[in-house]
Sequence to fold (588 residues):
Amino acid sequence: MSTIILGIGGYSHDASACLIRYGRLIAAVEEERFTRLKHQPGFPHKAIEYCLKEAGITPREIDHIAFYMHPIRGFGNRIWHHVRQMPRFPIYSAGYLVEQSYRRGWAWFELNQLRKLGGGRARIHFVEHHLAHGASSFHVSPFDCAAVLVLDGLGEWTTTTLAIGEGTQLRKLREVKYPHSLGALYGSVTNHLGFKTGDEYKVMGLASFGRPIYLQEMRDLVRLRDDGTFGLNTDYFTFHVQPGRYEGYVSQMFVGRFGPPRKSDESLDQKHVDMAASLQALLEEVVLHIARYLHTETGSENLCIAGGVALNSVMNYRLATGTPFQNIYIQPTANDAGTSLGAAYYVYHAILGHPRCFVMEHAYWGPEYTDDQIHALLEECKVSYSICNDPADVAARLVAEGKIVGWFQGRLEWGPRALGSRSILADPTRPDMTDVVNKYVKHREDFRPFAPSVLEEYGDEYFVNYHPSPYMLEVFPVKPAARQKIPAVVHVDGTSRIQTVSRKTNPLYWRMIDRFRQLKGVPIVLNTSFNVRGEPIVNTPREALRCFYATGMDALVIGRYMIDKGWQPPEEGSLEPGAVGELEVLVG
Ligand SMILES: [Fe+2]
Fold:
């Protein structure tokens, strides 16, 4: 019986691989975690190597290779689209077609090389991009039946898919085709506001500072259709005909109506902030329109979301609370990296017909390192360290003392958020902690908030309309009475992008936060990703050590080892002073 499937995703950006055996996920990881280049495109060689190693198999044992898109489907549309643009933009259009042809040919070549490496026995499946996205959510969700909504920039030629998932099958109901794309809409205005493609999450954070006073005008960018879909007014855009920044993605008509573009080194003024708020409001309006239609059409109480736009955590909260859907599922890698997972599960269930058997309840599917490996590294680097009886207790005490603590434990997270395996932790009760973490470690834009990890049992005390949200994919209003308790993780508009922590799925992290609760009376810590600006989240102990010493982190709890730089944070009235942890042995 065919049982081992290797999924490959995100070849154009955010490359990734996963491996499933008998329908159970064994490993899943993004290529960027190995190559150290954010959003790494191309064939995920290192991610595949890791997945095979984690499963303890060779390429000969792979039964199926599931690729995240169809290299031919939609390509005809792209050719025809750019041939029509050729007289106006000959260099871009010709270059685009050459690049696309090369990329598809090279992907096909690499897939066949991998197949040959396994003796030619594996069968290659090309899974339609939006079906891979949809399956990445529905097939690992707890629902037997659900409405499925995929929102991204562009798949083969599709930008939005409304579908229904029933058992092993995923059936499309409606599609929106390029250039009518919510991902492209958000990306174009993001670019106009002086941010790079891929920085849409920054614009979402910026939106909280503004008022949506341009919403009425921006409604002219999108037409809502009665069949639950939408269309863009393409007169306002040029992303579909030519590339570029500043002058590239929006048209002169857009500039005439909304003003000149901001350059990335220019300061942000109130107009930019209000435009971000208006764009966010427009996105939510359109997505709620689609979701309400999808609910009526499917009659399901369950909604599965996927695609790059599904990383918009403000929108996701609106979907959870502003639609008739009772339950929402989003897996942590909703963006293109998640399509390796979806392609693999689509093959397993929808093509091979195997019954459903797996629910993704956590994000810990990447590499793990033993204490022996960590110990050898610390010795090699001549680092002074302590051995902890209980890393959770040690870290909690350090955080309660006001220190910025690197936390490196267990398997690497799958997806763009650090969720308690490769995290930097700090005390959320200190109002100055946002500035401290930014100044000494993260060097992020001032307007970007930090997020909290909260014990799932206590969420209702702090957040409005609380429900578990384990992957930091929803932004909740913080209850007014709770805001002053956790000022470092409350955004300017009184919201928080929370990660709920389950005792079942990450007991060590849960215990660490619970110990912090005993020390400070708050079941919440500030959790930001273990990296510096512009780099992927650390993967190996060596990368963690490098990041620790290259930043102003105070301490690192890595496996059962602790390193403390010995810097004393300023005293704060409520802080409980005291020695660090229960240290058993001092070495080095
Ligand atoms: Fe996508």
Notes: Residues 573-588 have pLDDT under 50 and may be disordered.
